[in-house]
Amino acid sequence: MKEILDEESKKALISYRIQRAYETLKEAEVMIRESFYNAAVNRMYYACYYATVALLLKNDIQTQTHNGVKTMLGLHFVSTGILPLKVGKTFTTLFEKRHSGDYDDFVYCDEEMVGELYPQAKAFVDVVDGLIKES
């Protein structure tokens, strides 16, 4: 996001991104229920991505790419201890699995993998939402 937002617009966008994060987790639940595991991983990643973008915006950290979002999360929140390493790794794992599932041939996520990742994605969004509300 290149334009400068006034404080009210910034708060509205942060709120919207967190809302999208929770809605996207619900989309993941539907994909899991219907056994669309690659799509579920995609939705889990995007839920975490939306939450992370909100956190970065809250802290006036700008990025241009998905990789930039991942890098800035690590630099400003994981390496500083604000976000626990285990929680930060969830974003990296979903980033890699989503990319592979979306772009590589013959990559299939399975029920077991998704069963492990979904609670981590939910916890990630909850923790990031908490960080936003604290500051």
3D structure, described in words:
The chain has 135 residues and is mainly α. It has a single domain, classed as Nucleotidyltransferases  domain 2 (Four Helix Bundle (Hemerythrin (Met), subunit A)). The protein contains 5 helices and no strands. It has helices at residues 7-33, 37-58, 66-78, 85-103, 111-134. Helix 1 (7-33) packs antiparallel against helix 5, helix 2 crosses helix 4 (85-103) and helix 3 (66-78) runs antiparallel to helix 4 (85-103).
Main traits of this protein?
135 residues; mainly alpha; Four Helix Bundle (Hemerythrin (Met), subunit A)
Under the CATH scheme, which architecture would be assigned? Up-down Bundle
The largest sheet, given as strand count, sense and whether it forms a barrel, is:
none
Beta strand count: 0
CATH level 4 superfamily: Nucleotidyltransferases  domain 2
| Integer count of domains | 1
Mean pLDDT: 94
Beta-strand portion reads under 5%
Quaternary status of these chains?
single chain
Helical percentage: over 70%
Q: Helix and strand succession?
A: HHHHH
Number of helices: 5
Protein name: HEPN domain-containing protein
InterPro entries: HEPN_dom (IPR007842), UPF0332_toxin (IPR052226)
Pfam family, one: HEPN
Family: Belongs to the UPF0332 family.
